[in-house]
Amino acid sequence: MKNLMIVGVGGQGSLLASKLLGHLLLSKGYDVKVSEVHGMSQRGGSVVTYVRFGDKVYSPVIDKGEADFIVSFELLESARWLPYLRPDGTIVTNTQQMDPMPVITGSAVYPDHLLEKLSASVHCDALDCLSLARQAGSSKAVNLVLMGRLSRYFEFSEEDWFRSIEACVPPRFIELNKLAFSLGRHYQ
Q1: Cα–Cα dist 62/4, whole Å
Q2: Measured between alpha carbons, how far is 18 from 143 in angstroms, rounded to an integer?
Q3: pTM score, two decimals?
Q4: Domain total for the chain?
Q5: Using one digit for the tens of pLDDT, what is the confidence trace for 6-17?
Q6: Strand pairing report for 85-94 and 46-54
Q7: What are the distances in angstroms from CA 141 to CA 16, 113, 171?
Q8: For residues 41 and 44, what is the distance between their CA atoms, to the nearest angstrom?
Q9: What pLDDT is stored for residue 37 in this prediction?
């Protein structure tokens, strides 16, 4: 069984990312459970989606220390959910920093050198997904850049992923999303 967490801030596209991943895994014959938790997601709050798959999955919930992967839309969210990662797990993260409300109001400070701190304690695959999404044609495609990067850890072909993109994305956005996915998958 494999356990993934997709974490971010409301409005970043984490729900589409989990839908895409779930579709792909189901198409490959896995039993898949997906659970979404929204914390004031429409106001920039934290959003987490659990994705579990294997031969037979009985619960969608992932406990601390059980996630094989944490896919993060924002660095601070990577740090927030770090206790859920297995010691040999991987964080796939966007390097973008989005100030949470306490930072915006001045009651807290965004941590310095967060990527370096994360990388010192766990395997961290970080890239500037926002720049790649813009290169694909839309800053809203960060989610597909992240899915492309995550795809490097699975044995599914790019065409397998593209079929799920075609099934989950509105037709007018399919090509843009495929490009964003490919940029994330092939970025060096």
Answers
A1: 8
A2: 9
A3: 0.92
A4: 1
A5: 998 766 778 899
A6: unpaired
A7: 10, 26, 15
A8: 5
A9: 73
Strand partners, 148: none
* DSSP letter, residue 108: S
Evaluate whether 77 touches 71 at the Cβ level (below 8 Å).
no
Q: Which residues contact 107 (CB under 8 A, 6 or more apart)?
A: none
Q: How far is residue 8's CA from residue 44's CA, in Å, rounded to a whole number?
A: 9
Token duo for residue 107: 């009651």
How far apart are the C-alpha atoms of 45 and 78, rounded to whole Å? 14
Provide the token pair at 95: 């390097």
Residue 26 token pair: 């189901």
Q: Which of 110, 100, 123 is nearest to 39 (CA)?
A: 100
**Number of residues assigned to the chain:** 188
Query: Percent of the chain at pLDDT above 70?
Result: 95
Q: Contact 114/75 with Cβ under 8 angstroms? A: yes
Look up the CATH number of the domain holding residue 13: 3.40.920.10
The parent domain of residue 37 ranges over 2-186
Q: Between β-strands 2-9 and 31-38, what pairing exists: parallel, antiparallel or unpaired?
A: unpaired
